[in-house]
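Worked example 4.2. Below are the chains of a multi-component assembly; read each line carefully before continuing.
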Amino acid sequence: MKPASFEYVRPGSLDEALDVLHERGDDAKVLAGGQSLVPMMNFRLARPAVLVDLNGLGDLAYIRPANGGLALGAMTRQRTIEKSAVVRERAPLLAEATPLIGHVPIRTRGTIGGSLVHADPAAEYPVVMVALDAEFTLARKGGTRRVAAADFFDTYLSTTIGPDEILTEIRMPSVAPRAAVAFVEISRRHGDFALVAAGTVVDVDGGGRIAEARIALGGVGPRPVRARTAERMLVGQRPTAALLAEAAASVMPDTDPPEDIHASAEYRREMSAVFTRRALTAALAKLGVQL
Amino acid sequence: MKLEGSHDISAPRQKVWEAFLDPEVLRQALPGCERLEAMGDDEYKATMKIGVAAVKGTFDGKVKLSDKTPPESYRMTVEGSGGPGFVRGSALISLSDIESGTRVSYSADVQVGGLIAGVGQRMLGGVTKMMADKFFGKMGELLHTAA
Amino acid sequence: MATMTVSLTINGVAYRGEAEPRLLLVDFIREVCQLTGTHVGCEHGVCGACTILMNGEPVRSCLTFAVQATGAELSTVEGLAAPDGTLHPLQEAFREHHGLQCGFCTPGVLMTAIYFLRENPAPTEREIREGIAGSLCRCTGYEGIVRAIAAAAPVLAAPR
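Applying the procedure described above to all three chains together yields the following structure tokens:
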């Protein structure tokens, strides 16, 4: 099918874009990379009356060091993130997750902001943000506000962004220099939406005990799941295969996985534990810890 | 797909029974329901605007209440079609007394077809459950304010 | 909404046409510019048949509106062969190694491969398979495609 008609606006500045949303926010949809929105429009599942194209806002695409971590403009292309040495250095979990998003042609247009606001429950970036406690800047006419990733993702394809707001910046905190990351996922084919995805950051101190553990899961509920029970089990302990198995099993009750032709809910629930364990094992291996 | 669940409402069973059969209450509780027109014989014509985020559609259809065993149980059948697809559901709604009021249990069989079913398959179960939760949650809210 | 003027270049040639905002870039290329080499497959970005290069990078032309591409330099499959019809080495390799049967996915595969080999001039077989994973082929089972790209790689990498 072809998209339904819409009014097309291409603002030349963020202020202009915010003005349009202030007027027409309820009928308007923001167009970033278009890799998730345009398919829905092509199916006529989404029929916004107004499309506000942000692709003219070059100012919203940037990758900058900030407070030991990273600040990314919402319009930064996923492919740019994929190739960035700064991202590899300061936000390694983001670097590791990015090549798993679709395929190259998707990533050349897809943006980090678009992916986050689209909030597909099986997408990689929301998982990364929840794992790292990232912070988002939302702008509207007359002001901005900051929202923590944990408070941003609501349910399927829904976030707490208002109809008159635009996500402008993503702030990722610094990662302990010693920490290792791993992002793993399972899908039927390379590039498909993940059935289950797991992102982790692990830090082990000089005494061989886990100093920090962050685990987030995607595809197992309406929004990313932060596995805090598992994290608490791990911190302060020496990593062993038994400990990892126990921590991995503890994520399952926090999941509410969907069911479709690709996998049952039960399978996804099992995989949430399997991939938590695999992610932790992979991260620990990078620290030279063999279990 | 099969959906099952229950909601506890802090209101006496008779009041809950009446509310669940009151089209005016149902209209306010059914997600996105803009119109619920009585056609007689416990059958209503409905217009519902439902969706998640950018995926919104208007569904035109029917709501029928049947198999009434007051104040214990009844069957609600919903049928609607619109741009994104069609929905057909039949739910057995049972009421039982609990200490704080009434427990409303539902056991439903829902079929979703058309475009949303194909494209949105992996979110369908979750979204449908969310809609059901919204409906029962709103019913509880309305009964609370009425009480 | 009323139409807007779209001006862009395709394979070095300037094109100018009118487009409703809702007109997809792939449809502009095919119907307004009359270049039907680029194909419409799934219309939701999954099959890869519509893949072209926009300002040198692979893009799903079914997920871009024509009005967004004004001012861009596009490369489509029609630009691969030389003006006298001599096949591009990649096309030659596809011909020799049976990299196509019905040809429907082929333009998208070729444009993806052009970019892929530019980024990775000496790929392993595994890398080639991953590199074309975004293009779905119903005919070949991908073997001929992989062989063709593997054969073309050294030819394209060689200094000319």
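Take a moment to check your reading of the output against the notes. The longest helix of chain A spans residues 265-286. The CA atoms of residues 142 and 200 of chain A lie 37 Å apart.
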